[in-house]
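[audit] Reproducing an earlier prediction to check determinism. Same input, same settings, fresh worker. If the C-alpha cells differ from the archived copy the diff job will pick it up downstream; this log only records the rerun itself.
[audit] input (87 residues):
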Amino acid sequence: MPCQHVRLPTGGTAIVCSSGRRPQCACGQPAPLLCDWKVPARRSGTCDAPICRACAISPAPDKDLCPAHAQDFETWKAARAARKVAS
C-alpha cells in the first residue's frame, strides 16, 4: 500500500495511502471517469464502470457513459423520439 505525504493548504501535512491499483478502462488506458448510467440494483445507483476520456460518451455536462451504456442511451433516445412522433 503506497503512502505519500501531502501538504495541506493550512500548512499542515497528511499521509495518504492507497491500494496502489489505479482503475483501467476496458481499452487498457487509465480510467479517471466512472459510468453514470442508472442501475437501481447497485448500491451506488450507477454502473460505475471505469472509463477513459477517449471511450466515454458525455450526453450531458458531468455525465459520462461507458460504451455499452452509450448504446443503451441511443436506444432509449430513439424509442423516446418514436413515442413523440406517434403522439
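[audit] rerun output stored. Observation attached for the diff report: The chain has one domain: 23-86.
[audit] end
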